[in-house]
Structures are given as C-alpha cells and as structure tokens.
Design brief:
The structure is a homotrimer of 259-residue chains. With 259 residues, chain A is an alpha+beta fold. Helices cover 20% and strands 29% of the residues of chain A. Chain A is built from five helices and 16 strands. In chain A, the strands form four sheets. Chain A has a seven-stranded mixed sheet, with helices on one face. In chain A, strands 10-11-15-14 form a four-stranded antiparallel sheet. In chain A, strand 2, helix 1 and strand 3 form a beta-alpha-beta unit. The interface between B and C is medium-sized, with 32 and 31 residues.
C-alpha cells in the first residue's frame, strides 16, 4: 500500500485496541457483515455491539446520546458510529482522535456534541479514501469498515485535517431538551446532562408534573419521574412500567420544564 | 490491591474461562457497555450474551428458567445474572460456586432454584466489595462487572460465606406452574421440569385442552401442545404459530392442569 | 475418535477460520447456548451472528437471501444455517464445501439457491453423525454445533457425498419474485437478483407503481422505490419510512411487475 502525502501514520500506542459499533442498524444482517469482515482482517480484535438501535435516521438525536455512551468507558476504543439518513450522498467521512479514543462517522452532526465537549483535546480529519467499489446504500460495510481496519493497522489514508468549526453540527447547542433515545424498558433518555439541570426542576409531560428522584426504588410502582441516568443524562422513567407508553412520547419529541 | 481477611483466593483451575451474560437488559447500550469494560480488562476472554431478554423486573420468574438454561452447558462458565426491580436498594450481591461454574447475581431470588437443585455442591458468598463510585441505576456495569473481573482474576473481595437457607427465595418451591419466559417464536416456557409432569397430563389454557406431544412435527399446523423443551422444561407451543397470541398468555400468567 | 470409512479429512488450509450463524432464532437463549458451546470448544474461534432473524420457519424464503448474504464476504467462513419448520423429523443434514467456505444446514432447501449458483465448485455431503443424545427440538445446539466443531477440527464424520440434484429444492427456480426478508427499517428484500431485472421495470405493489432509484437520497421522503441493495438483490424501500407498513407487505408475499 502506498503511503501518500495525506497519510497519517498512527504510532502503535495510539492505535485502537478494540472496536465499538454504534449504529441504527438494529437486528439483521448489517452488523453481522461488518463483524465478519473485521473478524477476517483481525481475528483477535474485540468488536463490541455497543449500541445497535439508535433512533433510525436521526444523527441529530444520536449526537446528544454519544457523550453519555462513551463516558467512563475504557480508553483505546475506536467507536464506529453509523447513523445516516443521507447514505448515498457525497457526505464526508470524519476520523476523530479524542484523547486515547478514535471515532469514525459521517460528517452529519452525529459527533458534534462529543467534539464540542472535548474541546482542544480533539483532532479531526476528513477521510477521502474510498474503496475501488462500494454499494450505494451500505457504506458502513463498504467504506467505514475498511477505514476502521486501516486505523487499527496504524494508517489514516487520504486524510485532511479539518477545523471542528467547519463540521456539520458545529453550531448545534451543547444539549437538547428532547427525547433522544427510548430504551428497552421504555425509558426516555434526553439529550440533557443531568448535572446541568437544577434538582428541583419539574418537567411538564403530557399534562403531568415529572419530578426528580434518585433511583427507581424511591418511587411508587407506576409513578413517572426524572433522574440522572447511568450515562449522566436526564432520563424519564416510570417505576416498573414503560414511560414511553404511559406518557405517549417517542424519540424526537421535545421536553419542557415548568416555568 | 490489598488482599484483606475476607478475600477468597480462587485457584487457577477454578477460575472461569468465559462469562455468560443473563439479563433483562434487551437490545440497547447496557450489554454493550458491560462488554466494553470486560473486553478492555481481558481482551481474549470469551463473553457470551446467553440471554438478554428475560422477562423485565421478574427475578421470581427468571429463577425457574435458569436451571434449564445452564443444563448441559460446558463447565468453567461464570454466569453474570442481572434482573432486578430493586436496583438502587441495598440488595446484597451473591457469588456462588456451583460445581465448576460461577454465578454472580443480586440476592433477590434469581439464583434460588439453581441453588436449591444443586444442594451441597454449592458454596455461596455475600460480596460486600463496592467500587469507589457507582451509578444509582446500572449496577450491572458499575458493581457486577468489576466483581466478575475479580473472579476471573482469582479473587473474591470482601466476601462472607452465607448459608443457602438465608437467601431470598430459599423458601420458594422447586418449580413454578406459570409462564416464566416467552421466546422469539411465541412459545411459552414454564418453570416446571417436564420430567416431573406425567406424560398424560393435560393443561387447561384459555378454555382449551393442551396435551403433550414429542415434537413440533407430530402436530397439525396451528395446534397447541406441551412438550419437554431443550432445557428440560415444560413448554407450550403452537405448531408454526405463536402460542402467546393464540392462547392470550404473557409471562407471569399461571398454568393449571386438568384435574 | 475413530476415523471411520465415511470420514472426510479436511486439510488444515481448508478448515474454517470463523463461524457465521444464520438462523431464525431471534433474540433469546438459542444463539447464546450455541455460542457457549463453541466458546468452550474453541475459545479463540471468531463466531459471528451474521443473521438471527430470518423469516421464521421459511427455508424456502431464506434460500433466496443466502446468496446475497455471503456475497463479498471473506473466504474461510463456515456458515451454520438453521431455519427449519421440520425440526424433529428425520431431515438430513448437509455439509457443503463451496470454494473456500463451508455451509452446514438441514436438507430442506435453505442452501438450494446457493448450491445452484455455485455450480461445479461445490461438494455436498449428507452427514449421518449424530450425538449420543439430542433434544427433539434444538438440533442447532445438539447436532449442528458439534458437527461445526468437527469441521473446524478437520473432520467430517459419517459423511456421504450426494449429488446436488438429489437435494430438497434442487428443482426450485434460481430467483423468487417475493418478499423474502423484511429488515429493521421495514425494507422489503426480494429473492430476485437486481442485475437480472431491467432498470425500467416497474413493480405493481398495493395499487402503486414502484420504480427503480439508485439510492435513498434520490427520492422524496416517503416515496416508495426499488433498487439494487447491498447484497445485489432487488429491494423495495420508502425513503425514511417503513415500506412494510406503507405497502402492507410481509415476508412471503409475492411481487409482480407491470406488464
């Protein structure tokens, strides 16, 4: 392989030691084909399905979940993040070095909040390498996966440094008062850092007042409340019930506080 | 790490060779974060999602599925079992040595049936080790995962032997005539060992008589029957149909036999 | 282990380097138990969930998805394919060497299209090895998984060569104008190779005309179209919507073109 002028060489101690997949691909063959390619290239590389059911087609919501998702996770991980309503367009591809981690994603805003929070600790490249052939609709397999392999091998090909301010989503707010992800239990995960919300703040949801509690066991069964979840985000739950069904909310719905 | 007076040292041949996750976490980021932590600590340790969609919040049902789930599985496995409506309470944590296997779970009854069946082959400890910081709601990641790592490394920290009779669920029956788990095909898995049920027993479900058959292919398409499933449990199925929808049953519903 | 007269020895360079699971088992304990057995037998063997939610009980549909699923995947893979409405019958078991890959599946047609496309590059055996004991309903765990282990170890036990023409599905057509798989996004994957369909062909679906587009981004949000998907198959989608809900189609439904 020719190492051209735009190739960034990655020293061994900076290379990812594992790959975490973050997608909206859900159950089905998409994650599996990516894993099969990675397993063939690097049989002993741990590949983890970190999150496969992001809200489909919504990088604008995923952006506010990602900082919570990677918080406290072990350094040395390459997060391969693919959620993109614009697959098939000429969307740029970003590789980001953030502390000891790597991020690889389309330039559609999905990394915007992470990059904003990280500040100067971040290096961002636009990656113009493309394979000889790629499908029109599965860039996760055909473009992102081989780029991930290259990073693991210590090379970032056809990469141009870009300023964070030039990225899609650079002007987005640091947090989002909306439902960004609905989990398996029907809990509503917002795009707000709980530490930024006063402990006496009251949400107004579906005509109800939703107050803060420390944990599920503080509440009566069936009661709605908000709390700081394990990702540091404000989350709305119903003790031993489904908040999505009880409150009639879906991903993308805005959240409002009582004045 | 200080090896204190309550530290149990685990000889190398007794240490788990793989971790099996048994949870009600479903699809989403919870399993993924636990796997990421385990992959960073022990990159070559096999970690298997054995079962991720136990009936939510129901250790009282999971307890009767677990013995079937581990039956015939290879020795040397650490089963990390987290299903707990009481996360955030002061629930104890149990580590159990059962033959060549390990079990790690909250003291909420989820291990009760397994321990009862195993009898004297079991050693049980209450583990009082806690990390310097933990979220209020994701003990699977913050407390159970590091304890699992410690066991794999040969140490059980802050562990006190406890008598099985002192555990939550010690007084539960050895089997449960109820739907304990509904599988992907809509089959209804009970908490009864099929070997304990007479072959001519007839269940009365939703006004129908449900008789035993040996296997799916013995029945007409659409017919409901019970049989000994691959876990040794009584299971109700409808040949090439969904028993849950056809019979209107959900997890937790009781099952009754014809007199 | 006795190497009997019907044992096929597999030279080291022909042995699978990874196992890909292709099933209709969905979420639940079935995949997990198979993985646990494989992890105990071969801890460093990569095992990938390639596809776990094939249309239940429909090898006749899966047959037309498989060629797309394996296309372009790395050589040296053993595809363990279990979708079978006839588990518990005396269905034969097939092991197939197809180029540098292996396939292991029931003789129910699920491999028929792959074998037909591969032509003379294929060797097919009927495997009569059976374990001392097996459940009536989970042959994926009790019979197929140990045979997969044997192949990885370089042995095909009790194997008799069979002619492709003698297999179930040998007379099936090379493609199927029907919905064979519905993906996570509600996209409808057909059993037709897109390369065989004229680019100006128009499908008639639910009273609508569905025309070809190159990719999602060529279309208005909500518009239905067909295109060549990443597996080379004709797929029907609705841009940023669910084609299954919009068009009222489910797996197994036939597809028709305008005359």
């Amino acid at each position: 392989m020719v190492i051209g002028p735009n190739t960034e060489r990655i020293p061994r101690r900076r290379r990812p030691q594992r790959v975490a997949l973050v997608t909206d691909f859900g159950a089905g063959p998409y994650i599996g084909q990516m894993r099969l390619l990675l397993a063939a290239a690097r049989p002993s590389l741990p590949v983890i399905d970190l999150l496969a059911n992001l809200t489909p087609f919504r990088p604008d919501l995923a952006a506010f979940v990602l900082p919570g998702l990677v918080r406290g996770m072990p350094p040395g991980t390459l997060y391969l993040c693919v959620v993109d309503p614009g697959v098939g367009t000429d969307r740029g591809i970003l590789a980001v070095q953030l502390g000891d981690d790597w991020l690889l994603a389309p330039d559609n805003g999905v990394l915007a909040t992470l990059i904003r929070h990280a500040g100067d600790a971040t290096r961002v490249w636009r990656v113009d390498w493309r394979p000889p052939a790629a499908s029109a609709t599965f860039h996760g397999r055909d473009i992102f996966t081989p780029i991930a392999e290259q990073i693991c091998a210590g090379r970032l090909l056809a990469a141009t440094p870009v300023a964070p301010a030039a990225l899609v989503g650079a002007e987005w707010p640091p947090s989002l008062a909306a439902v960004c992800y609905v989990d398996h239990f029907g809990n509503l995960i917002s795009g707000m850092r709980a530490a930024d919300v006063p402990v006496d703040a009251v949400l107004r949801v579906a005509g109800r007042h939703v107050r803060r509690a420390r944990t599920f066991s503080d509440l009566a069964v069936g009661e709605a409340f908000w709390y700081e979840n394990a990702f540091g985000l404000l989350e709305i739950a119903v003790n031993q019930g489904r908040a999505d069904a009880r409150l009639g909310l879906v991903a993308g719905d805005p959240l409002a506080f009582e004045p």
